[in-house]
Amino acid sequence: MAAGSARYVRYILFAFFGLAVIYFITNSDRVVDTSKSTVPGTVPGHTSPATDHAQSPSGSGSGATKGDEKTSKPKPNHGPGLDPADYPMAMTPNDPSWNDLSGIKDGPRMNATFVTLARNSDIWDIARSIRQVEDRFNRRYNYDWVFLNDKPFDDDFKRVTSSLVSGKTHYGEIAKEHWSFPPHIDQEKAKKVREDMAQRKIIYGDSISYRHMCRFESGFFFRQPLMMNYDYYWRVEPSVELFCDVHYDPFRFMHENNKKYSFVLSLYEYVETIPTLWDSVKKFMKNHPEHIAEDNSMAFLSDDGGDNYNHCHFWSNFEIGSLNWLRSKAYTDFFESLDQDGGFFYERWGDAPVHSIAAALMLKKDEIHFFNDIAYYHVPFTHCPTGEKLRADLKCHCNPKDNFDWKGYSCTARYFEINGLEKPEGWSGQQD
Ligand SMILES: Nc1nc2c(ncn2[C@@H]2O[C@H](COP(=O)(O)OP(=O)(O)O)[C@@H](O)[C@H]2O)c(=O)[nH]1
Ligand SMILES: *[C@@H]1O[C@H](CO)[C@@H](O)[C@H](O)[C@H]1NC(C)=O
Ligand SMILES: [Mg+2]
Fold first, then answer.
1. Ligand nearest to the CA of 118
2. Could you tell me the distance, in angstroms and rounded to a whole number, from the CA of residue 326 to the centre of ligand 2?
3. How far, in Å, from the CA of 117 to the mean position of ligand 1?
4. Active-site annotation holder among 134, 217, 319, 347
5. Where is the composition biased (Polar residues) (predicted)?
6. Which of 71 and 94 is assigned the larger pLDDT?
């Protein structure tokens, strides 16, 4: 009798075991999902990007864009390696899929990243910028975001920014050589300059860190180890705004149209910060004629064929550009030459005139692009499209009266003239 009931107990145990195995197999997908919301960099309790993707109507997007975990779900139809011809970009409201602004966008992705230089204290100002970039564009594209800092980022900064970015986030600490005085700089001379500029009340004139920042953005951000993984970048600063929907992928636009540098705002540089920059540039042009492009934009920089600089530059707090161009021999020779001349410390050369002069002289005219449809604000200037229909199509929330493009202190009219471009609808009457 005892042997008989032991056999029943064994049957029951086997049955439970079998059920457990079946349960495990049918639920293994959910096990993978759970691990997704706890990948490093996501905030427990927040909706993970993987969950967002699963809700997209196209059914695509379960391929995680954050974290490196594998998934057994079907591959989404977006990413690198897809044939662009199969996924035409919607550039105007007449193009198919123009109004398809929900879910993850189908089609190829470029080898591209957002990049932000910031301090830990910039956390809430960069959070605002990220939120707008995500809402207006990146939530459908999920590009990565690289954060760079001369000090280690703290956990708060990483947690908040990772929770806002739909792509992968990466955090890099800048090497000392890229954020310090190079050995050839005369410290006494540099100090006197700062004291003098402080007295003359030149903005950031007395700041050492601002000079390191400008030199870093001029010569080093594009060769940080994390940036070596990409071909294109979009620079985002704290406290900027994006006012219109971005319907197409600007990285892909750059790639397919062979653009290397782009801007939304241009203006005249404050002369006191760059008194000898043009002398350095002329020296470089003489030493390296091989780097000067034939069909260049010298006419954007100079009104007398290159003798004098008119101080026009593209505003570099917004940039979408080619990292490979910045890493080219032409650009790095240009930077090394300027760096040797010491103006980052003996004056206060900004990265905006440095990038702009390089682009204007070493790129062909048609490799520089003006993004009229990316509406943007960085204190104190706004780029807001003047065309009423365009603003409605893009659901812009900027006031066109704030648009800076056609005001006297902007250089954008000059850019249009040297490129023989027709000014956008609504430009006239905006000059003052
Ligand atoms: N890590 C770090 N970032 C800085 C420092 N100074 C400026 N930045 C960043 O460099 C960029 C330009 O600085 P910002 O203060 O906006 O200068 P402005 O736009 O010229 O007035 C921003 O992205 C800042 O967050 C610094 O000392 N350390
Ligand atoms: C992305 O660009 C980097 C830098 O040019 C390159 O090393 C890397 O192989 C590229 N990755 C892909 C997937 O094309
Ligand atoms: Mg700024």
1. 1
2. 15
3. 7
4. 319
5. 48-59
6. 94
Contacts of 334 (CB under 8 A, 6+ apart): 284, 288, 291, 358, 362
96-112, pLDDT tens digit by residue?
889 888 899 999 999 99
Region 258-274 average pLDDT: 98
CA 320, 394, 129, 230 dihedral sign is negative
* DSSP of 15-53: HHHHHHHHHHHHTHHHHHHHHHTTSTTSPTTSPPHHHHH
Reply yes or no on whether 319 is catalytic. Answer: yes
Ligand 2 in reach of 230 Cβ (< 6 A):
yes
Distance 106 CA to ligand 2 centre (A): 21
**What amino acid occupies position 283?**
K
- Write the pLDDT tens digit of every residue in 326-370: 999 999 999 999 999 999 999 999 999 999 999 999 999 999 999
Q: What are the beta bridge partners of residue 319?
A: 235
Confidence of residue 21 (pLDDT cuts 50, 70, 90): low
Average pLDDT, the chain: 88
Residue 22, pLDDT above cutoff 70: no
76, two tokens? 């989404």
- Is the shortest distance between the CB of 81 and ligand 2 below 6 Å? no
Query: pLDDT for 376-397, tens place per residue?
Result: 999 999 999 999 999 999 999 9
Could you give the C-alpha distances from 130 to 119, 225, 239, 374, 400, in angstroms and in order?
15, 22, 9, 15, 23
Contact 66, 167 (CB under 8 A): yes
Q: Retrieve residue 160's tokens.
A: 């908040």
Neighbours of 87 (CB within 10 A): 17
Q: From the alpha carbon of 230, which atom of ligand 2 is closest?
A: 2
Q: Whose CA is nearest to atom 4 of ligand 1?
A: 118
Residue to probe by mutation, ligand 1, list 213, 273, 274, 313, most atoms within 8 Å of CB: 213
Ligand 3 ion: residues within 5 Å (CB): 237, 317
